[in-house]
From TrEMBL, chains A, B, C:
Pathway: Lipid metabolism; fatty acid beta-oxidation. It is found in: Mitochondrion matrix. GO terms for cellular component: mitochondrial matrix. Pfam families: ECH_1 (PF00378). It comes from the Eukaryota. InterPro entries: ClpP/crotonase-like_dom_sf, Enoyl-CoA_hyd/isom_CS, Enoyl-CoA_hydra/iso. It comes from Champsocephalus esox (pike icefish). GO terms for molecular function: delta(3)-delta(2)-enoyl-CoA isomerase activity. Signal peptide: none annotated. This is Enoyl-CoA delta isomerase 1, mitochondrial. Belongs to the enoyl-CoA hydratase/isomerase family.
Amino acid sequence: MALRAALRSRSGLTGLLSQRSSCSSDIRMCVSPLLVPQQRNYSTPPKIRVEFDQSTGVAVMHMQSPPVNSLSLDFLTELCISVEKLEMDKSCRGLVITSAQPKVFSAGLDITEMYGKSPEHCGAFWRSVQEMWLKLYGSNMVTIAAINGSSPAGGCLMAMTCDYRIMADNPRYNIGLNETQLGIVAPFWFMDTMKNTVGQRTTEMALQLGLLYKPADALKIGLVDQLEPEDQVIAVATQTISRWLAIPDHARQITKSMMRKKTIDKLTSNRESDIQYFVNFITKDSIQKSLGGYMEMLKKRRA
Amino acid sequence: MALRAALRSRSGLTGLLSQRSSCSSDIRMCVSPLLVPQQRNYSTPPKIRVEFDQSTGVAVMHMQSPPVNSLSLDFLTELCISVEKLEMDKSCRGLVITSAQPKVFSAGLDITEMYGKSPEHCGAFWRSVQEMWLKLYGSNMVTIAAINGSSPAGGCLMAMTCDYRIMADNPRYNIGLNETQLGIVAPFWFMDTMKNTVGQRTTEMALQLGLLYKPADALKIGLVDQLEPEDQVIAVATQTISRWLAIPDHARQITKSMMRKKTIDKLTSNRESDIQYFVNFITKDSIQKSLGGYMEMLKKRRA
Amino acid sequence: MALRAALRSRSGLTGLLSQRSSCSSDIRMCVSPLLVPQQRNYSTPPKIRVEFDQSTGVAVMHMQSPPVNSLSLDFLTELCISVEKLEMDKSCRGLVITSAQPKVFSAGLDITEMYGKSPEHCGAFWRSVQEMWLKLYGSNMVTIAAINGSSPAGGCLMAMTCDYRIMADNPRYNIGLNETQLGIVAPFWFMDTMKNTVGQRTTEMALQLGLLYKPADALKIGLVDQLEPEDQVIAVATQTISRWLAIPDHARQITKSMMRKKTIDKLTSNRESDIQYFVNFITKDSIQKSLGGYMEMLKKRRA
């Protein structure tokens, strides 16, 4: 059922790799009230805006990198710095991750970081993807994804790192690891994260087919935990997180860490070889050609 | 859904640690017709009553330690002896575990065994909890839990060791590993047993939140296998077990052992370090204080 | 529910071991239009008929070993040769496995290959069962099982090696690993394949009880993915496979291989000891006696 529905709704190759809009005209001055990322180019607006409510101990992280929150090196660096700051702030116990962009949570890895770039650049980029996963999947905070738009590939990965996922109940959105549709393979730690979320069998089929699930189907297979009307997603997330915060931090954190340790250790102890593997793969002529064709296609679609 | 339902029904901190009633006035003389535990103090009634039906090869083990079948050192010792005797009795092929106490299957580990006690005592206690789990999870008998009351923490663990779980369809009862609600962490083999029962994702969320599930929700996630009217639970359990006994013992036992071996080996080969870890944890000042506060709270509630 | 339904429908000991009809009178001359197995005795008709459609890249493999597609040494050898040929043919990207026999997909391992046979013969037979599993579970092709009849034991194993399972919606058919019902134990790689398909808990219960599931129940637990009217199963399978073939081969193959590697490696590195274990087990007097009794019973039922 879910397969057929997912296949039916396959609306093309949106996903994994999204193209950073080269001329982002709508520059907004959204500076985080509390946390200003340190290592960014101040000629561009921040890609992450964090609202931290000291009374509840909950931070809401708005991803605001137009047009589709592509996971670029800059974006990931900014995100990791933000998460690390919150992690070190004892008063911050919960994190809601959401999008400030319309219709999309995150479109996944930024294709321009891997197309026509040096092996060194590709390696640095991949390390930042790993870092994002390690920081979020291993976070001591309660993390809730408020998925208020489509969330393919890397966007789905980010959502799966969270403790709980609430998605907008809009059938035009979808979520999933759709890498194979683009001729790319989700790395083992993407797979492991999905296996931990929806089990071996569903993961095997979803990854082979690169399935993107509509919210209702994602709920059915357990890829998300709850659906809410689009304009309620963030509010419900902050309500839900208060229930998680009722549990003593220390016990909850140890429990979470024990449940995820094996999966995290696997990447930690294979980090360099995973980077090497990615760089070798992505710099292949055939893959570069395929990425180029995909970017061409995206450009045409926009024009 | 299940989360929201479970959270809604959280009726306080009942669970994991239950306080042994210090003056149990209703002493009954329920001596097992066939099996009299050997190593107990005969000034107290037996905490375990076993009815063995030689015609069917099925033993029914009634836990009868008022008020709530707390898993004390004495209780666990008696239970382990009973199970071992049945295990060695070739004519006994099936075991139904149930409660003779009203409204509760077992309230879990006895808090008085870990509060204000010496490290040696805590260690001996923890070894008996391990022993119970090893005996039941590795049993060659068909084991069915007839869960005729609430079954938090250690009570849930005991139920999960069985081959099949039938629970009373009474929405006032609940079942789950709620350790984190008390600031305690379920040890890795509790986690593994739950993962083997309901899968990684459900376990991760249930354990982080210390969720207690109503029967209908427990059925939905697979924590129990069947619901029956309260007064039918034991009868249905003995009927159900006959179907399991239709399978040749040897093949069924090897199958069960192969399916559980990895999980059992993990504790067997880490038994001493697990005891050491528990003793270090439970004798910490902060944990002792929290246990003390919890016992105070229970006393007040009863008064 | 599923358990009770499955138990209710247990219609005897059909399964695992099927007896090869000694006098197969209905010899048909169905020679594969494209692939003629090389190493078979041409005095018997081929047990496997392959139709390969070069325009779609999809091969349909019809098992046609009367009466019930028992997995004999000859049958398995022929099947493995066919699969290997298709695997090496770059133009063949998808494989549908189905039965040309009425009412049965495959009845599982051929009992006559293990009854009254030399250890050497039993070992050679077992190696061919392993080979079938290794070839199918590790296939680079998209594999879909069109299960147009009952599929117990080895038949279920074969179906589970595929990427997707479509079963005839006929309540008289069933599917499952029912080895324990015959006093036999499914080997670890049968178990692993089922765990990868329906998870640990369902596998544990199904294998202990040797459950055979009706199509509707098999769908519920995820043992099959889709039900179709009996006369539509093959057509729907070839339609479905085209969706899988829309995914770039290379990415899909690597993904499949990564998801199954651990399970496959486990048998590959324990192949000889697994054979030794099987031979020791099956040649035991008690097991031989039990097999003999089962064959007697089958003979009487037919008479």
